[in-house]
Amino acid sequence: MAVLLSVRDLTVSFGTRAVVDLARLDLAEGEILGLAGESGAGKSLTGLTVLGLSEYAGARVTGSVVLAGEELVGARRRRLQQLRGSTMALIPQSPAGAFNPVLTVGTTMLRALRLHGDSRGRARQRAAEAMAKVRLETAHLRRYPHQLSGGQLQRVAIALALALGARLLVADEPTSALDVTVQAEICALLGALRDSEGVAVLFISHDLAVLGALCDRIAVMRAGRLVEQGPAPELLTAPRADYTRELLAAALRLGSGEEEADGA
Amino acid sequence: MLSYAARRIGLSALVAFGVVVLTFVIARVVPGDPAAGWAGPRAGPAERDRVRAELGLDLPLPQQIGGYLGGVLRGDWGISVRTHRPVLDDLLALLPNTLQLVLAGLLIGLLVGVPAGLVAARWAHRSPDLLVRTGAVLGGSVPVFWLALLMQMFFATRMGLLPVAGSYDPAVLAANPLVRITGMPLLDALLTGNLPMAASVFDHLVLPALVVAAYPVAVITRLVRAGVLDTLGETHVQMTRALGFPERTVLARFALRPNWNPVLQTCALIFGYSLVNSFLVEAIFAYPGLGGYAAASADVVDLPAIVGVTLLVALLYIAANLLVDLLQAALDPRMGLR
Ligand SMILES: Nc1ncnc2c1ncn2[C@@H]1O[C@H](COP(=O)(O)OP(=O)(O)OP(=O)(O)O)[C@@H](O)[C@H]1O
Ligand SMILES: [Mg+2]
Predict the structure, then answer these.
(1) Ligand nearest to the CA of B238
(2) Of the candidates A124, A205, A226, B270, which lies 20 to 30 Å from B166 by C-alpha distance?
């Protein structure tokens, strides 16, 4: 399948400290790529950098991020703003805090659609269609964030990305703030949308079980660098890097108390 | 929502009652004999006793307060000892002038403070921020009388740009009589299309309004800066950026929004502060308003007038807070269910 996102020699640094240093990372259209690694490995920063947002945190970026044939590093701010939302979107870690508390989620969605050029009527229609795709009632658009559950808000966030027509979803631990059953629902939804809509997902998580169940491929990061990447089943059953093995062992130790880590 | 409003209004009535009682007690314990003031310097003791009985001053305090409150509710706020006119008439004649001054100050406070706060938050810890913050510290700490005198000296006396004192040019009024609608001269002149008078009132309002505005500008700037900076750290702001909104929109339409409530709340506080502040400003600019009235009344221990001014200021303050509370409940969905 066609390459949607390709990252080459990407470094992200704060001051003189490089916290991300990625040699090569590709994501095809309609693919779900898991980005794993321990806390502080630089997963979130990688996601933010793809969205062109790490500069807002004061980071300096070098290298190359090409999205659908277009170089993003050093791109004009205006162009990045056009691409954000309409081509790539963020699915947040904590949906509860990801919506403006004094606006209905519909207001946020309509404003975003209008920003990217839809007429009022067209925006309404698209919002309704997108809500149907994530299996939420349109009436939920009139709710304020505090009137929706975490799972519902996460669905709204996904609907927002779909309504805008995003091809790439950067999902930064999108399920870590949700309880287990809701986690499974959101993962299933993302998998279904990959199949039906052909969206690609950069799925950031330190939970290898979740990644194994959902992702086509997994890349493992440590201290800002890629340790290894490969198709999900292989990487989980026959990891080549010691570090991946350590992560797996840790995950198994954690998971053994409850259920078996599936997909492995 | 309705029961919330009812509760707030009930509470406000209680506060107003407390203010009247307190003012009465304070006014009674300060030295000075209102009856003597009323009867004039040449009245003898018998005459004074007659006046005292006539004014109800010989009754016990609770009964006096009761009588006064009953009158207040009926619109009878007593007769001024100094002007010999109904206090309420005096107050209502002067209140619009003072309101015009205070509201102009508050409006300037919002029009300058909100954008300044946004600019400071947008470029936090960089030169625009430092500039704005320095201005805010100055505006909030400069003594009002000093600022007023400085403005008078510079803009009025030295540059001759604006009038030194007064609230309009009598010659302009004579040629263009003002129809009273709201009582606020600027608003009335604009509403009736009386442009010469509007211009004259505006010219006279600029300097005192700027002086009154110094504090609101400073407070609102700092509040907006701090609030927006706080909000900028929240996830939903990052989400807004991730949706492609330009930074200006992120700040002005998304990050500012949750901060309107604290700003409004502070506006009510500032309103009360400015009301009292304006008394001083009115004196310096010879601007006719409640300030001059209060000062003159205090001079001769004009009890009904003093109690009247105090009650009116308290009522205005209560009304402002009530208005803000209701606005807040309407603005912030999270407050609706209290
Ligand atoms: N604004 C910032 N200023 C300085 N350093 C930062 C900043 N944001 C992140 N870092 C550093 O970058 C590194 C990577 O952080 P990042 O948030 O990408 O980790 P992560 O892999 O997402 O971890 P987690 O699993 O805990 O979310 C960390 O060492 C962190 O200290
Ligand atoms: Mg992270």
Answers:
(1) 1
(2) B270
